[in-house]
Design goal:
Blueprint lengths: L1 H4 L11 H28 L4 H9 L4 H12 L1 H13 L6 H7 L5 H4 L2 H11 L3 H26 L8
Helix pairs in contact: 5-9, 8-9
């Protein structure tokens, strides 16, 4: 009421298909950036500072330090994080989407997990919901196995 009395209109960003994806992507990025930052900063703290000092004495600029010292030093962590994220690439965050989920945004908010939930539990079609969920999990497992096989070419795989 106060916004309307001030001449401002409220933005229905959770019930508008126009804004829903932006809100979802921003909130997911905000939610996930912390853990990745902790892991990458922890791996960068393990780099020998003498490497940076020697490169600076040789005249290396900041981007050269990143390219020739930092990235090669944390390459194994980058590869492991990539392999682990590829396994969940089809998991679009069921809990986050289901919280924001409403009838007006079904067309832009529906993902495999919410479809499986609605089909399997709300419509009581357990066999179809289970089959789709199992198929999604198998694709995730194949992505992990294939990305690990590719990473082993550089001796950086998980197993």
């Amino acid at each position: 009421q106060m916004l309307i009395s001030l001449g401002m209109k409220p933005i229905p960003f959770l019930s508008s298909p126009k804004y829903f994806r932006y809100v979802l992507v921003f909130s997911d990025m905000w939610k996930e950036c912390g853990w990745g930052a902790i892991i990458y900063i922890a791996s960068m703290s393990n780099i020998d500072p003498n490497l940076y000092e020697a490169a600076k004495i040789d005249g290396a600029k900041r981007l050269q330090l990143i390219r020739y010292i930092t990235l090669p030093s944390i390459a194994s962590v980058i590869i492991v994080m990539l392999i682990l994220r590829l396994g969940s690439v089809l998991d679009a965050g069921f809990d986050q989407i289901y919280i924001f989920y409403s009838v007006p945004v079904y067309e832009v908010a529906d993902i495999i997990d919410t479809w499986v939930y609605r089909t399997g539990l709300e419509q009581l079609n357990f066999s179809l919901g289970s089959a789709v969920g199992l198929f999604k999990s198998l694709i995730g497992m194949l992505l992990i196995i294939s990305s690990n096989a590719i990473a082993r070419r550089w001796d950086e795989g998980i197993w």
